[in-house]
Design goal:
single chain; mainly beta; four-stranded antiparallel β-sheet; 7 strands
């Protein structure tokens, strides 16, 4: 449900930094989550974040695994239901290497 104008930028250094813009504001209890997604469909959660009314957010987290072993960075919209699994609602996705 992300608008076509939504975008994200990943920077990998000592950890990973994500800057997003153009996303719908996080609703009460809901949030967004950054994942690594492998070709084998393996997922590793990197962290969650909220998007403000301006549609922007920034996330800085350590990298628990080598992102080169994965195919995509994925941002999902998650319900606040206590289930740690990916919701299946990806809103942004980009390759880990270009």
């Amino acid at each position: 449900d992300a608008p076509r104008t939504a975008s994200g930028r990943i920077t990998v250094a000592d950890g990973v930094s994500l800057d997003v813009s153009g996303l719908p504001r996080s609703r009460d209890g809901d949030f967004y989550e950054l994942w690594l997604l492998g070709a084998d469909k393996k997922l590793v959660s990197l962290g969650s974040f909220a998007v403000g009314a301006d549609g922007k957010a920034r996330l800085n987290v350590p990298l628990p695994v080598n992102p080169a072993k994965f195919t995509y960075f994925d941002v999902s919209r998650e319900p606040g239901d206590g289930n740690p699994a990916h919701s299946g609602l990806s809103v942004l996705r980009g390759r880990t290497s270009q």
